[in-house]
Sequence to fold (383 residues):
Amino acid sequence: MKKPVYMDYAATTPVAPVVAEEMCRYLTIDGVFGNPASRSHGFGWQAEAAVENARKQVAGLINADPREIVWTSGATESDNLAIKGSVAGRGNPHIVTSIIEHKAVVDSVRWLEEQGMASVTWLKPEPDGRIRPDAVEEALQDNTVLVSLMLVNNELGTCTDVAAIGERLRSRGVLFHVDAAQAAGKMPVDVRTMPVDLLSLSGHKVYGPKGIGALYVRRAPEVRIEACIHGGGHERGMRSGTLATHQIAGMGKAFAIASQSLDEECQRLESLRALFLESLAELEGVTLNGSETCRVPGIINLSFRGVEAESLMLGLRDVAVSSGSACASATMEPSYVLRGIGLSDEQAHRALRFSMGRFTTEDEVVFAADRINEVVTRLRGVR
Ligand SMILES: Cc1ncc(COP(=O)(O)O)c(C=O)c1O
Fold:
């Protein structure tokens, strides 16, 4: 077993080896290095063919039409484009979102609010992290133009009932943006049956490269958004900039693999999750944060009574995890997501997120649980 054991797949996934190989084909003089927008020679045509093939592959995972996929630099940009692009040019727009969205959504919406470009209703989730469809409906106003909610929460793994929410928005003509960065490749996502208008995707959460993502923009009924990045008019004017062929080809390949292996991967992760929780069953005072039932299998957020997550992480040197409480800031603010579902600062400081993925093995899960048992018991003894 390779150590440290990686249990932070929700932060990023390793690029699948065949994906890395595929990417190399689009870089050098021997490969397809042309600019996909070059229309006057074969170098450009070949690169364009690679980009269009990848567009089909990404569309395939979410059952979209390839023409509904807009390349971006990642889910952060997709969120920005969906939110700012929906609101631009609209008079007196109102947005509905929640306080536990990813920062790419929270900060985009807050920026619009601070600039006086939109008014916002910030929804509070249920204690299990889910947003009630009724709460969304109650928040709608005559001038609501956009609802933005995530499908799977990145800290909790909890799923929101996007289908039920989308149904209520369709008849009101309100755009529905869904951040699916943590859902794609981890659960079925079908935009033909799911009433969403805009959906954010990220390459590096699905064993593809970092720095590439996509925004799904529905064609029927047609959704129109304004560009945030202006230039050569690429991506049907929605996102200018020379396309990163190698990253796009990598994301395409990664999404094609995810489509083929989705069921098997979900089942495997479900049993790893059960094994992990069983292996921790002897330990008292462990609480699961988020929904026990509406969730993806790979993300498990746990609080350990009487144990600071920072101390536990330091003790778990052979296991790479992330703390629900350690955000990027140097002040070690407790997680706004955990506080958002009603945890006290103290409880939030005791939470760790364990996330598993394609390369996680049973041995690794048992090893991690054994280490947690040991370190938590030791830390509790010290107190
Ligand atoms: C739910 C969610 N949205 C957006 C992002 C940002 O994605 P990217 O790193 O592709 O910009 C992440 C990644 O942390 C995420 O988990």
Notes: The first helix runs from residue 17 to 24. The pocket of pyridoxal-5'-phosphate is lined by residues 74-76, 102, 104, 150, 154, 179, 181-182, 202, 204, 213 (CB under 6 Å).
